[in-house]
Amino acid sequence: MTELNEKPGTRVGRHTGTVGPGPLNGSMQTFLSEVQSDLVQGMLSPRVLNDPELHQVELDRIFTKCWVFVGHVSEIPNNGDYLLRYVGEDQFILVRDEQGEIQLLFNSCMHRGSPVCRAEKGNSSHFRCPYHGWIYKNSGDWNGAPQRARAYRKFDGADWGLRKAPHVDSYQGLIFACLDPDAVSLREYLGDMCWYLDVLLGLNEQGMTTVGDPHRWAVPSNWKSGADNFVGDAYHVIALHQSLEEIGVLGGDVARGVGSNFHVALDGGHGLIVTHMPMPEPLGYMGFPPEVHSTFDLKGLDADQRAFLDADHGVVGFTIFPNLSFFRSFGATEPGKPPTTFTLLRQWQPKGPENFELWNWSLEWKSAPKEFNDAAYRAGVSSFGPSGIFEQDDTVAWAGGPPTGRSVFARKTMKFNYQMGMEGMGDYAIREDWIGPGTVSTTPWGEMNQRRWWHQWADRLMAQ
Amino acid sequence: MTVEQVITALPSVELERSCIQFLYREAELLDNTDYSGWFETCLSEGLEYRIPIRTTRVRTSRDAEFSTTGFHMTDTYGTMRTRVNRLLTEHAWAEDPPSRTRRVVTNVRVRELGPDTAEVKSYLTLYRSQGDTTEYDLIVGERQDVLGMEDGAWRLRSRLVLLDHTILGTANLGVFL
Ligand code: FES
Ligand SMILES: [Fe+2]
């Protein structure tokens, strides 16, 4: 039987290599150079919060280049466990394959692009495409097709597995993927953030696990507003979250960060808000009560990391560039009730330039008593998440980005002020005596972390 | 189930009417942003209020769509009081200016559980619009309630809201379902 190729002699095709990011046009180059020089002056164009063209460049040069968070190891404990997850706006299957390896498979059949997985969660050894029935193993490998002997006799299945992230790795239970084949390792990408992830999540061998499924909800704002808030914005708490002080669930001292909060800026655009809060007895590290902190062995920590904890330091929030954030704090669900310490991961998932989806995971210590974990879960959900009495108000504040960013008038006449704490502005200064890595401030009344995050953003968009 | 069984399982007209009136009054108070009126006259001190997170699953595992461990809200009488007190401050920005809401409560099914308790299931379609826009959010789901008769009036003892959303299409749950 002869093949019915369009032209006689045409060879069956194979894939070509991956394509790098497209070139930036001249006006985009000019705009991004301006962003960089503006940032040095502590200013930022509103255009960054709503521009379809810029958004496309972000998807191309940030989300296909950076290590992006896709889940927690505890969400897929068994071989075959899968979840639908996103890198930028693309849907992937995060799955633990039959060898126990974590894979991130592009959810699109190699035949015509039909989704091969349509449940958001489950367990399966294979994914079968509904359209013509091509079958893929949960490692992504091509595994067969109907009528194979007659239809695909000469077919090389090795070429036609699902596209997958070339790199998937985890650190302290957090799974990240990178779509760039030439990427640096995850450890290198996280850099000094590893030091802080150790003291936050690695206090004993069991570590932390996710509770329930993540919250997901649609927020009418640009994804970068969330990243910008969590990388360093301790300032907004006094004003935006004033209602919580008024009803007595947030101490005024905490809101004002009296001598207790400061910034740590790390290379790579990552940044943290660190707290220094002496804990009343019998609370231990980061405010965990005895039944919890007695389960911490600190075996994985070095002397400096232990000194950080011994000196009553904690981390209230961080952002890992580009879009993963963290929150840990005390919270009481009712005034007068004892506060409990809860831990959250949150991700700002882009959905076009004007909207993002907020994903919120609660974490609990595997070693902690159930009673404590239940109370911490409730405290977390009542503070953050769609019904959270903190976060409800944040979503309102962030809604200002898209209308301002699209405004012709704003683009011509307006720059956002990012000058807090700059030279001569206040008493914000760089601290020299710090036990951990990073550039550290004396107070929270500055915007070093935010400026650094945006510098990283602009650098990434302009990178050759 | 035979026709006879269905008929004997029907709630009395008084019971059904009083439960429906409770749901309507509750919706009216909330749509009129009378949060403290709602809190004081509709909620039982033993309240358990939960909105489980929903995740798309294949049909064969349909029962597991609603999480038993993850919730958009998991509240008690005390935490509801915190929420209501917050709404009454001048800095609860999510609902100030307040949303224009309309709670359409339908498909009410009442089952007597005991002399002073009733299971009441209803469908809720909540229209929510805020600010100077024609845009609005719809929050839709089934509510499975238990009402208890306390001092001659129904009070909400438990509510489980089963949403028709996996990803919530509203910026926050600053409104009660
Ligand atoms: S599109 Fe998947 S088999 Fe044809
Ligand atoms: Fe906030």
UniProtKB/TrEMBL annotation, chain A:
Similarity comment text for this entry: Belongs to the bacterial ring-hydroxylating dioxygenase alpha subunit family.
Keywords from the UniProt entry: 2Fe-2S, Dioxygenase, Iron, Iron-sulfur, Metal-binding, NAD, Oxidoreductase
Protein name per UniProt: Rieske 2Fe-2S domain-containing protein
Residue ranges of domain Rieske in the record: 67-177
Biological source species: Streptomyces rugosispiralis
Region Disordered, residue ranges: 1-24
From TrEMBL, chain B:
GO MF annotations in UniProt: 3-phenylpropionate dioxygenase activity
Leader sequence segment: none
Domain of life from the UniProt record: Bacteria
EC code(s) of this entry: 1.14.12.19
Matching InterPro entries: NTF2-like_dom_sf (IPR032710), Rng_hydr_dOase-bsu (IPR000391)
Record keywords: Dioxygenase, Oxidoreductase
Alphabetical list of Gene3D superfamilies matching this protein: 3.10.450.50
Family: Belongs to the bacterial ring-hydroxylating dioxygenase beta subunit family.
NCBIfam families (UniProt xref): PRK10069.1 (NF007479)
Official protein name in the record: 3-phenylpropionate/cinnamic acid dioxygenase subunit beta
